[in-house]
Structure formats: structure tokens, C-alpha cells
Automatic annotation (TrEMBL), chains A, B:
PANTHER family: PHOSPHATE REGULON TRANSCRIPTIONAL REGULATORY PROTEIN PHOB, REGULATOR OF RPOS. The modification 4-aspartylphosphate is found at D54. Residues 130-227 form the OmpR/PhoB-type domain. Residues 5-119 form the Response regulatory domain. CDD domains: REC_OmpR, trans_reg_C. It comes from the Bacteria. One of its GO terms (biological process) is regulation of DNA-templated transcription. GO terms for cellular component: cytosol; protein-DNA complex. Keywords: DNA-binding, Phosphoprotein, Two-component regulatory system. This is DNA-binding response OmpR family regulator. One of its GO terms (molecular function) is phosphorelay response regulator activity. Gene3D superfamilies: 3.40.50.2300, Winged helix-like DNA-binding domain superfamily/Winged helix DNA-binding domain (1.10.10.10). Residues 130-227 bind DNA.
DNA sequence: AAAAAGATTAATGAAAAGTTAATGTTATTA
DNA sequence: TAATAACATTAACTTTTCATTAATCTTTTT
């Protein structure tokens, strides 16, 4: 898991201390500076993923700092974290190029979630998301419907895929017949149940290369995809 | 300047009306639906840049709707716009993959700024590739529509080119019928689907010199240009 | 041992996709 | 402006795909 590096610009000693400690605890690398000039200096020297700017600071305020960042062509995403909650300030913040404008006070947990979300969006800009499931020696790519085992590859159909994903999401846990049927087939009747059996057989055949993988039936209850 | 297309999911008639009108005035294309089921239907048919979800709606709430979007692999960025302001709701919203969580009431002007900001961040660099695409022993030049294989050359038409480029950009990944149709044809209906088939046939014929290249159909899903 | 549930393989049929040709439609040229 | 050319769309028809249904066999439960 990537560790993100943040620059925190906050003149208030106690809030700065608190945030610094909390963010570090949450697995961020944090550099904390207390004014705009120090911020600019550090930004010249080091690379950051995101910059958190207070607005109200003596000497050079957050807006002025943002202007400087823009002027010096330092390409770093920044956001404002401030008690200035007037609409006009928010608009100004965004017009300066902020990626977000967060009003104080904010719950630390929510802040972390927002930061991670922003960093995730900013990073994802160019890479297509790769959601892969791993089970035993198999890999399943639900976006392309591709199941792979070593160099072999199978193209699954949509029903096969839906069922496999359902089981994978509940790996090692029982999936009740009725839940599978209601979720995937939309209803739970005699015929759909038969159909489900046929698909389980297919998946078993597809997964037989790794003997540690099993789709167990729990009589009258449901199926369980077992592995490890 | 690009005009962004939004899906607004809001059951409240007066707020929905207000937002719809305001956003249209601000140069967005807006489709307004009043419940989750309609939203899912429209999402299958049309392409949007961003989706604005209310949380509290009868029948299927916004969170449930987001789950459905995820499960159906509809790749659309969405945010919540809601009066539910508890931390636990915010965290839930982000955990479902929201790009933002905006608390009501919000000033319309601020909303628009936030939307534009998000869309700006999300906008993938649509670097219209100037270089040649290579696939197998073929090269394709998208500027003058020229496909070459060894000494042979073909002049493609614009539709052929658009489709080929779309497939090339997503080489080895599924391009969903509906996405191709919405992007290239502008809409997804019976006739356009037929037309798409005709073009796929043409491209297959053009690419047949290299047997390692295949345009696969994934039943009910889309096409996949395979190579290597 | 009988009955119910599950597994497996095969058959079926409707919908989707493939192909070729005909028909519109638009832009270009005479 | 009529004729032509280029090309996307629609039509007509064939082939393929795949979820469902059916048939048959095996396991589990009572």
C-alpha cells in the first residue's frame, strides 16, 4: 500500500500538532510547517502528493501561498482546511486551483477519508483501475470476465461471472441458495434453482486445476467457495 | 468548452426542479430522475460525466443505488448530495466509492464550483494520440486514417477510424457495446447496434492479415480487441 | 428403503451476433 | 443543379451463443 506524503501548513500550534500526529498515525508521511515561506522552501526541496493549507496565517495567508505556488509553477495539488466558511472564501479557494475546500472544525476520521479519496482520484487519473480477485492459483478479472490459471485463460459468460463474483465476495462463507438466486436471478423458484446447479457445476470444472479450491454444498442451505 | 452531462437523482420535486434548472442555466446537460430504478435504467442507456445522488429516497436509497452501480460495473463517478450529515453516513458514502459527499443545504453557486472542480480533476487527459498505434504487425495512423500492414495500406472512413481507435485505446479489455455506441454514435438503440456489427465485420476483414489479432465478442457485453 | 436434494451431461430455443447486400444520405464534382 | 461518389445505415438472412430445461445419475436425509 502506497504511503502518501503530505505537506501540512498550519500556524496554530495545537491544531497543527494534533493533525500531524493523527495523520502520521494513519500512515501518512507528514511534513508540518507553520508559515507560507517555510512551505515554499520545502516545496522546492521535496516532492509531495498533497498539500493542506490553512488560510488564516500571519504574514502570508493560505490564499497568498496558493498564488505563490501557482506563480512558481510548482505542480502540487492543494486544498484549504480553514475556519473561513463564507461562500466567497470557498469560491476564492477553488478559483485558486484547490482540489477541495474543507471547513473547520472537521472530524479527523472524516478528514482522513477525504484525503485518501482525493489522493485516490488524483492518482487514478491515468491508470485504469484493476480490480482483481485471487483465489488459490487462479486470478479473476471481473471487468473483462477473464479467469486465469498460470498461462491458461477462460472467457466467462455474464451469468458465470456474476455467480463467481458472488462466491468470491463471500469466500469461505456460506452463500445461501435463496440469497444467490434473489440477487442474481431475481427470484427463487424451482427452475432457477436447477439453473444455479448447472452453473455451479461449470464453475467447479473451471476451477478444478487447483485442488485446494472447492465449492461445497451445504445441504438445504447454500454453497461455500473454499480455499486455503 | 466541454459541456458536461450530469445525472441528477433526487426524489424531492421542488429541490429537484430547482437544481435541474440551475444546473442547466450553468451550462450542464442534466437528466433528472426521481428514483433509483430509473437511474439504473438511464445509466445503461446513456453516458454521463458525473452522477449526483440523493440519499434519502423511498424504495431504493442512494446508498443502495451506489451499491447497484458498483455491482453492475457501471463505471460512473458519483457523489452524494444529502441532508444526512452524520459522520457515519459520510464514511459510508466514501466507502461506497463516492468522489465527494456534500451536505445539504448548499449554496448553488458553491455546488457548481465544486462540480466543475471535480469534473476537472476527473477529466482524463483525452490526449488525442498523435502517434501511431501498433497492433500485431499493423500500424494505424489516426490523423490521416491510414492502416498499414507491411507494404499494404488502407484508407479508413471516419466511423471505421473512430471505432478502431476506441478499441485500440482499450486493447485487451472489454469495450461495452453501450459505451461504444454512446461515445461514437451518441446513442444506444437497436439500429445503431446493428450498424456497430457491420463496422466490426469490416474491421475484422481489414485486420485478418495478422491471425494473432482478434476482435472478440463477449455475449451481451461488448467487444474486445485482442492481440499478443 | 424411500424421498428429497444435488450433480452432471445433454438437448433446446430464443436472442444476439455475423455477414452480405440494398438503400438512404451527404458531400463532391461535372 | 444534376450526376456521381463515398459512406453510413437498414434490411434480409445465416450462424452462434448461452441460459434454461430436461433427463439421468448420485448423495444425503429421514
Amino acid at each position: 500500500m502506497k504511503m502518501y506524503k503530505l505537506l501540512l501548513v498550519e500556524d496554530d500550534a495545537s491544531l497543527g500538532y494534533l493533525l500531524n500526529e493523527y495523520l502520521k498515525m494513519k500512515n501518512f508521511t507528514v511534513i508540518w510547517v507553520k508559515n507560507g515561506n517555510d512551505a515554499l522552501k520545502v516545496l522546492e526541496e521535496q516532492q509531495f502528493d498533497l498539500c493542506i493549507l490553512d488560510v488564516m496565517m500571519p504574514d502570508m495567508d493560505g490564499f497568498k501561498l496558493a498564488e505563490n505556488i501557482n506563480q512558481k509553477n510548482i505542480s502540487i495539488p492543494f486544498l484549504f482546511l480553514t475556519a473561513r466558511s463564507l461562500k466567497i472564501d470557498v469560491l476564492k479557494g477553488f478559483s485558486l486551483g484547490a482540489v477541495d475546500y474543507i471547513r473547520k472544525p472537521i472530524d479527523e476520521e472524516e478528514l482522513v477519508v477525504r484525503l485518501n479519496n482525493l489522493l485516490h482520484i488524483l492518482a487514478k487519473k491515468n491508470t485504469s483501475q484493476k480490480e482483481l480477485y485471487k483465489i488459490g492459483f487462479y486470478t479473476y478479472n471481473p471487468l473483462d470476465f477473464e479467469l486465469s490459471f498460470e498461462s491458461e485463460k477462460w472467457q466467462l459468460t455474464s451469468r458465470e461471472s456474476e455467480l463467481l463474483v458472488y462466491l468470491l465476495k463471500n469466500k469461505n462463507h456460506i452463500c445461501k441458495h435463496k440469497d444467490i438466486l434473489n440477487t442474481i436471478w431475481g427470484k427463487n423458484d424451482y427452475f432457477n434453482r436447477k439453473s444455479l446447479n448447472v452453473f455451479v457445476t461449470r464453475l467447479r470444472k473451471l476451477l478444478k486445476n487447483d485442488p485446494s479450491i472447492k465449492i461445497e454444498n451445504i445441504h438445504n442451505q447454500g454453497f461455500k467457495l473454499m480455499s486455503e
